[in-house]
Amino acid sequence: MNAGEDTAGAAGLPRGTALLREPLLNKGTAFSARERDVLGLRGLLPPRITTQADQVRRVLENFRRKPSDLEKYINLAALHDRNETLFYRVVVDNPDEMMPVIYTPTVGLACQQFGHIFQRPRGLFVSIEDLGRVESVLRNWPHPDVAMIVVTDGERILGLGDQGANGMGIPVGKLSLYTACAGVHPRRCLPVMLDVGTNNAELLEDPLYIGLPRQRVRGEAYDALLDEFIAATQKVFPGVVVQFEDFANQNAFRLLRKWRDRICTFNDDIQGTAAVALAGIVSALRVNDGRLAEQTLLFLGAGEAATGIADLAVAAMVGQGVDAAAARARCWLFDSRGLVQAGRSDLVEHKWPYAHPHAAVAGFADAVRALRPTAIIGVAASAGAFTEEVVGEMAAINERPIVFALSNPTSRSECTAEQAYRWSGGQALFASGSPFGPVVRDGRRFVPRQCNNSYIFPGVGLGVIAAKASRVSDEMFMAAVHALCAQVAPEDLAQGSLYPPLARVREVSAYIAAAVAQVAFERKLAGVPRPPDLLAHVRAQMYEPLYADYTQGGH
Questions:
Q1: Local structure of 451: helix, strand or coil
Q2: Exactly one of 103, 178, 455, 550 is catalytic; which is it?
Q3: In 3-state terms, what secondary structure has residue 357?
Q4: Are 391 and 410 in contact (CB under 8 A)?
Q5: How far is the C-alpha of 159 from the C-alpha of 360, rounded, in Å?
Q6: Residue 408's pLDDT is what?
């Protein structure tokens, strides 16, 4: 066996080329002279030893040279596949530049093109053909200490619909944010694609599509796969958190209801979106000097995001002393067939609580005029739906209208930041699901920030892991809302920012994690003794993307 082949190195590390091919361990040109000798690397790397800072400089130079966001995504994915520590160093140090590429909005395009840009598998693909052997599939994963699983079946990817197995880009991206934003160790993160087919005709005809070329499985076979998968996760990775992601409405709500009181799980599209949106509304009310219990919320959309936000807003209003029925009456939904109201016979179950008595209304602008909302929240992926008429009407009704265009990717946004400020005369309190740059109007500089779930779910996950919580509760998400709002400074609000800067996201996540862990300990849901300092406890568990010295046994 040659020195560069797969032999055991120092402290149980692989040697030579095997080490260079392991992204969790590879340091590239940063391996020291001593490490190169001990680990059989001499001659396999250029002789000049570089620092991690040098490597970051090289990565950024090449990244910024790429002509498109998709090319930048491919560039970062390749880095992720060969050197995870360096990948996370780059992302952690440059969040404003990197996060729109590794997640929204670019990840949407990456999912659409996934089969064409596919280079190396990441995560686990569990297909309907694995029914009866899912546990053995999960045991193929090389890391037994998984703490966080993000799983999708690819049916409702962002605002793009059914992307089938191409939707794997979403769990991969989400878990990258768990590590970058909250320091959950990448070894403890597992992205999973449940491939049950796709009804996307273009994908079925695409010879480079990576998933099963068949129509989606429904009914008993689908449920059998989900049940077997959940049972296997609990057996193979005891205590793991399972995050449901981008399931279609008909499955998302029922799966959450089925499992939330049985395992440690949540649905980020429902609960995470709700928390970050509610935090933005509460921040906006600091500008308005208003009370949540006095607001009227009109949602463009009536799916997971809309009802999730409405449910959490109702819970917050109830916490302010409002009767639950009265709180629900302040939340209205508008779907593809018009205003959701009690006279309609076509409503599915999750819309019923918000079907209030009202005459039929077909147009969204008409709904704004009829209901006189203080906030409009777009979550229907209906591009351009917040027209000049809609925003102008909101500005006529409210001195400081709340306008949240939360759909992503950017191509599905209800309006741009510039449009919201221009059409409202600079009065809109704006947040978006996709990133928009600063806007200058009448000498004033507005800095809109994303209503991005990355402010919430990484910290929630870190808090649940740190407390070894047995369940994820709505109270934890409410605690996350308050923790996030507390991190929005007056100077943020003065420039139109309803969220803290992304540069502080790890600090924000630590505060959220401590608040979530606090709930776990108070409600007897924690699986470890309570530490004296919760914030110090969660910070101590946060992964920092720095190279270890392998000659000292560190990895």
A1: coil
A2: 103
A3: coil
A4: no
A5: 26
A6: 86
CA quadruple 477, 478, 482, 483: dihedral sign: negative
Cα–Cα distance between 125 and 151 in angstroms, integer? 10
Asked if 309 contacts 380 with a C-beta cutoff of 8 angstroms, the reply is no
Provide the phi-psi class of 417: left if phi over 0, else alpha when psi is between -120 and 50, else beta.
alpha
Check whether 491 has a pLDDT greater than 60.
Answer: yes
> Do residues 533 and 18 lie in contact, with contact meaning Cβ atoms separated by under 8 Å?
no
Residue 286 to residue 532: CA distance in whole angstroms? 33
Residue 163 per-residue DSSP state: -
Q: Are strands 375-378 and 338-339 parallel, antiparallel or unpaired?
A: unpaired
Mean pLDDT of 468-486: 98
Q: Are 281 and 295 in contact (CB under 8 A)?
A: yes
Q: Which pairs from 204-208 meet CB under 8 Å and 24+ separation? A: 206/115, 208/115, 208/116, 208/118
Q: Which ranges constitute the DSSP H helices of 416-467? A: 417-423, 457-467
Distance CA 373, CA 332 (A): 9
Quote the CA–CA distance of 6 and 297 in Å, as a whole number: 60
Angle at 308 between CA 302 and CA 312, to 5 degrees: 130
Tell me if 148 sits within 8 A of 178, measured CB to CB. yes
The CA distance from 399 to 290, in Å, is 12
The pair of structure tokens assigned to 486 is 């507390």
Name the burial class of residue 387, with classes exposed (0-12), middle (13-18) and buried (19+) by CB atoms within 10 angstroms of its CB.
middle
| Cα-based angle 161, 163, 165 (whole degrees, multiple of 5) | 150
Determine the average pLDDT of the residues in 267-274.
96
Mean pLDDT of 486-495: 97
Q: Is the pLDDT of residue 6 over 50?
A: no
The pLDDT of residue 385 is 97
Closest CA to 373 of 290, 479, 455, 449: 290
Q: What share of the chain is helix, strand, coil (3-state, %, to 5)?
A: 50, 10, 40
Distance CA 232, CA 265 (A): 14
| β-strand pairing of 331-335 with 338-339 | antiparallel
Task: Supply the pLDDT for residue 12.
Answer: 81
**Annotated catalytic, 174?**
yes
Domains within the chain, CATH numbers bracketed: 100-263 (3.40.50.10380), 271-454 (3.40.50.720)
C-alpha 457/C-alpha 477 separation (Å) is 9
Whole-number pLDDT of residue 552:
84
Q: What average pLDDT does range 191-217 have in this prediction? A: 98
d(C-alpha 219, C-alpha 224), whole Å: 9
Residue 333's SS3 state is strand
What tokens does 340 get?
Answer: 């959701």
Give the active site residue among 88, 174, 178, 351: 174
Tell me how far apart the alpha carbons of residues 309 and 287 are, in angstroms, rounded to a whole number: 20
Instruction: State how far the Cα of 530 lies from the Cα of 523, in Å rounded to an integer.
Output: 12
pLDDT (mean) for 384-394: 98
